[in-house]
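Convert to structure. Protein one:
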Amino acid sequence: MNDLFDLLLVSSPNGGGLFFLYEGIPYLLDNFNTTGLSLGKDIALRGIQSSLIRVYDRGSVDLDGKALSFSDIHDICLYGDTFCFVGTGGNEIVRMTLEGRETDRWTYPGEEDSMHINCLAVWNGRLVFSAFGDFREHRGYKGRTQRAGFVQDLLSGERIIKELSQPHSLTPSGSNLLLADSENRSIHEYDASGNLLRTKVLNGYTRGILVSGRTLFVGLSLSRNVEETELGTATLVALERDSWRESGRIELPANEIYSIRQLDVQPESLRYLAAIASSSFASLLGRCRELEHAKGVLHRRCRELEQAKDSLHSRCRELEQTVERISCSNGGNIDRMIRKFSKSCRKRLARLTGKQQQDH
């Protein structure tokens, strides 16, 4: 079992992060919500939700969605000397150089996240993507995805595979294509013409597929959309590649799995891990500094509120003394008027004190 789940990178969005499995033990590298992973000879790409692409080389470079105009990063895929990624929020696929310069953008009609375009693959020389369906309203696929999904050639527009239900994880296997038909908790295999060859149903929301030697790895998630699940946590399943018989499984301390990739024992793999560790440490250190700064600002604000409260207390005492002097010499009408003003000041002090308690 230890040899089976070894040298694997597993991404997990929505409260997960990035896991490294070594000799059957999952290690959490960081807790940045991660979707797509793509590994090349000298480079690794990582999608971090909601809108960040992290490029690992000898260091790391962040490509921010605000600056590059994309939202809700999902899959990411090396494509020759460029890479493509899915901006699910904008119903779009973007192609960029490895330096971060945009070369192409394909945007499909509809409101934000209407089609739920998600995964990419280069299959028999064709760049293909999966989507939940041809919907036009924002998340119009909710409750309507059964047999509405498809796999499409990005450049030609050909719909190669249809009648899918929340498809994900397009994974070439020789000339064939594997994919997760997630809503139906299954995986499918298709031939080069898009004909269905076989299907296997599992006991979770299928997403994340990796072919490695004689083993086929499949990720099972606790779906946010599909209620029927027997799982208590995200699970990585190993199947025999030829027979699809289960040969093992391992649980991860997360709810979801998105991508599965395998490292080798070459120096490049150690460089990936070193770059990920260094980048994650730098990011977390930056967050700690931001929190320390915010803590200092909050303390200063609390001191200011304390000083304002003391000043108001002093002013109230002065007004009470003034009221007492005037009421002795001017009678009831003026007395009532000034007492009313004093009461107003006390209400203001109470509001300020309440605000201070909320800040604490």
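Protein two, convert as well:
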Amino acid sequence: MRSIGFIALALFGMTNLSYPTESKPLPYKPVQEETQAIAALEKLGGIIRLVSLEDKALDVDLTGATDTLTDEHLQYLLVIKNIQVLRLKETQVTDAGLVHIGKITSLKRLFLEKTRVTDAGLVHLLPLKELSYLNLYGTSITDQASETLLKFPRLQTLILTETQVSSKGIQQLQKGKTDLEILPNLELRKAQAEAAWKAAQKAVADAKADYEKIQAEVEKVAPEIKQIQEEVNKTSAEFSEMTKKNEAAKKELARLTMELTQAKEALERVQKESSKNPQDALLKSQFEEKKNQYDSLQKATTTARKNSDMLEAATNAAKKNSDQAKQKLDKLKNSKKLTDAKLTWETNLKLEETTRKIWEELNK
């Protein structure tokens, strides 16, 4: 008989008599009372919920016991009455555990996602005549399980996503049990694959048309492109020549500037010596010579600077002309636009091939 405390908690829609979980699996210990079995499962990390207050149907959730639950522990379930939902996602349950689960004849919904059950183990579940929902997501179930799965009289929903069951296996199941909802839905996947393939085909056709249109525009202006190409070649050559002259002028200016600095220093030294000996004719002669050298270099440096500035301006103008000619050529050629259109076409071709293969695989 169920305890008063259990029924009181059930009035709130669920029981969750949580106990601290252990780091290592607890050994299975046979029990006789339902409350003892519930306590043992909750200690392992399970949660027991009341599905219906009217008939006291239970939902046993053992997904919190992924590291603590063993096949042996499932024997606790046999002591608990009216279990209609059992959740075992990602637990360590194997075919040996299904032997115990097959004895819970009240079971209507069974969740075995990512457990270690196999085709052979499903046979142990055949006594579950009320089973209407079976989730085998992510298990190693194959086409070999089809015969067994068709023997559940009330099965309405079957989840086979991420299993080894092929499209052919799903077709066999659908043919054998027409009212069975199977996920993945093969017919829906076929329709989706066909729609995706058709969309990819249209995308390929559109991208090809865009590419050919741009290519035709480029061919139409081919004579003008040739003319602009010649202009580009000419302006580029002018820019290259002006750049060389500008660099040479800068080097000459640097050389003269250095010589001017040296001449100024030499003039200042002679001027200093001459001021000390104003009557010295040799020093006076040297001063005049240095003064003439300095003046001459100063004029040459000024001329070189003006020449360098002019060449700098001319180089910049040549670069501008060259850049404008290249931009005009690129615009006529539609280079980037044409490249992008070709890339889009090629990408859509790959997508079309992928979607076609998916459609073909589903329709084998």
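Residues 1-22 have pLDDT under 50 and may be disordered. Residues 110 and 246 are 85 Å apart (CA to CA).
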